[in-house]
Amino acid sequence: MMICHFNIFRFSLCVLLLAGINFFMSCRRPSEVVKRVKGCDSLIITYYTNEENSIPKSLSTTNTKAIRKTAYLLDENDTQPQPVKPDGDMQFYKAGRLILPVVFSYRQPDKRFFLFDLDNKVIYIKMGNEAATFLKSLAEGKSWY
Q: H/E element holding 59?
């Protein structure tokens, strides 16, 4: 009987610990980037091409959930710049006004980054795997990511 109560106690403690971690992560303060693009009503993503005289591919959305998700992809740690040609750019708009232009590179796994200017400071952020997969899937024409 005592062993049964101990197991229930351990299980309850694990559940409370996981709930606490989940609560803490969901209450994380949004970064300056996320604050900046909060309320943006449109996003344009342009993919550059390597061929001369070819037209770049552009995607746009006014879906606020998609815009917010894309903004959270920029919420990573700063890193050191690496010389690499960018693969495209994103432009966040609010009421027709450009709020934040972002340049990105996702094709080379060891040179994935976001680059933007925030309050006259150049920010260079290492791109996570989720962001690279997301951008690759959009470039391939998949909207179901």
A: strand 57-61
* Long-range pairs for 120-124: beta carbons < 8 A, 24 or more residues apart: 123/33, 123/78, 124/78, 124/79, 124/80, 124/81
Give the relative orientation of helices 129-139 and 64-73 as an angle to the nearest 10 degrees. Answer: 130
pTM reported for the whole predicted model: 0.71
Residues 124/78, Cβ–Cβ less than 8 Å = yes
Q: What are the DSSP calls for 70-137, one per residue?
A: HHHHT-S-B---------EEEEEEETTEEEEEEEEE-SSGGG-EEEEEETTEEEEEEPPHHHHHHHHH
Q: pLDDT, tens digit, for every residue of 88-144?
A: 999 999 999 999 999 999 988 888 888 888 888 888 888 888 888 888 888 888 765
Is 67 within 8 Å of 112 (Cβ atoms)?
A: no
Sheet holding 57-61, edge to edge: 57-61, 42-47, 88-94, 97-105, 113-118, 121-126
